[in-house]
Write a structure and sequence with these properties.
The protein contains 1 helix and 6 strands. The protein has about 110 residues and is α+β, with helices and mostly antiparallel strands.
Length: about 110
């Protein structure tokens, strides 16, 4: 079920209705939701932020196939239901009462 979120990315605010928000610094091609740019650059010091906002099940499948194809081709994903960012910092606020966040590591550039 979609949720509302405000993302503050490098000081700029974005309001989104999202089904998923993925934040990655390094991820293999098999981590499909982290593949919006087609190639994660682990040593660039930036976080890759992928926001998926499909409107229905078919759009959701289209998002997944677009991300998978992006990983295979090592190119940017081209899907209207995806927004991709690279940033030093991110802050997320949602309308969810309870949600989980798994952080493997966090890089903060000074």
């Amino acid at each position: 079920k979609p949720f509302q979120a405000t993302l503050q990315i490098d000081g700029k605010d974005y309001r989104v209705d999202a089904s998923a928000i993925t934040i990655a610094n390094a991820a293999p091609a098999t981590s499909v939701m982290a593949q919006g740019f087609g190639k994660v650059i682990p040593d660039d010091g930036l976080l890759d932020i992928i926001v998926a906002s499909p409107k229905d099940t078919i759009s959701g499948l289209s998002v997944l196939s677009s991300l998978a194809w992006s990983a295979v081709m090592s190119s940017n994903s081209n899907n209207n239901d995806l927004a991709c960012f690279r940033a030093d910092q991110i802050k997320i606020e949602t309308n969810l009462r309870c949600w989980s966040l798994m952080v493997k590591f966090l890089i903060h550039n000074m």
